[in-house]
Amino acid sequence: MKEDFLQFLWKYKKFNPSCLRTTDNHEVIIKQVGTHNVENSGPDFFNAQITIHNQKWAGNVEIHIKSSDWYAHHHENDLAYNNVILHVVWFDDIKVFRKDNSSIPTLVLKDYIDEKLLFRYQKLFERTFKKWILCENQLSNVSDFVLVNWQDRLYLERLEQKSILISELLKSSANNWETVMFKMLAKNFGLKVNGDAFLSFANSFDFSVLRKCTHDLGQLEALFFGQAGFLEKEKDNYYSKKLKIEYDFLKTKFGLKPIHAISMQFFRLRPSNFPTIRLAQLAKLYFKNDRLFSRIIQTYDINEFYQIFNVGTSSFWERHYTFDKESKPRQKQMTKQFVDLIVINTIIPMQFSYARSQGKYVEEEIFKLISQISYEKNTIIDNFIKHKVPIKTAMHSQAMLQLKNMYCDQKKCLKCAIGNNLLNQD
Prior knowledge:
47% of the residues lie in helices and 9% in strands. By secondary structure, the protein is an alpha/beta fold. Strands 1, 2, 3, 4, 5 and 6 form a six-stranded mixed beta sheet that branches. The protein is elongated.
């Protein structure tokens, strides 16, 4: 038995409300269970309305496994608990008093719970090392209607979560949306392995410096590779020496300080994902697009994004993956799969956050855009497909990643629509 299950029982009145009595044998009539306090400290439910022994009460409800948890959590010393009108517990092992020594009415919930519901709860949380997620053996019992509606909510929740970083970047960038777009693009050009290093690179200079270099691809590459620390060691080729001369000029002119190149990882990456190639592509993207932010923020057609990001590299990088070793000539255009990732992880969160900042809602346009993108292929998504979860687009895969990371892995089944559905089935 866990406290969050008791909160679930109280919140959704999963008990017989017609015969409730306190431990003092006083009748309890619930008009309002109260508002669940999920974020802040203090009692579990605010503003409940309850009649106890013919006396109407308005106040808070606290829930514990045992009555004695009141003292274990030191609530008797906390003024926030003085307005508790009912103590809901599973086991009553001690009388509980407020700070003014008045006793708090106690309701023992286990006396009013259907055994079938307890069985479903125990089955859902049954521990086994073979389970990938707790409900994997019961997922087939959940209707597609429940799953699809939950996916919509999960995806919006994921966008809200991604908007936190955007808000933080806005604060540190004087609310300049173009700056934040560059930083988010840089982070996601680095992918999972180099994302943090690329964000550090993007944070290492003012966006105004980039603006002054966009007319010259050589200057942009010098700025990017210099700030990323790739020009600190002398290289024996004309291209590197030229970049070094250009970067030394920019470094003096704008007072630049590079990050350490050691933070950029090459290990276990495909050559097309090497940080050198992604930096070269990012430079070419800004060289080719003068008003990148304005164009991106108003576009909801995936094919137009394929055109915007249809860029490669300068000629040197067509014959190299690193500064030192020459390779077979090959144009290194951004693939559609890579552009899909950029749209999913950068463009759509930026569109969502920007629209909210303008008092607009573009959820319908965003849903249309992400529905044009195929679902991501990884172990998590493969496992959900194996368990017959409907996954057709990137919206579904993003939703299921949110579910796995924020609910399944954290055993938050009682806050999940799937867990709730399984508990409520007869």
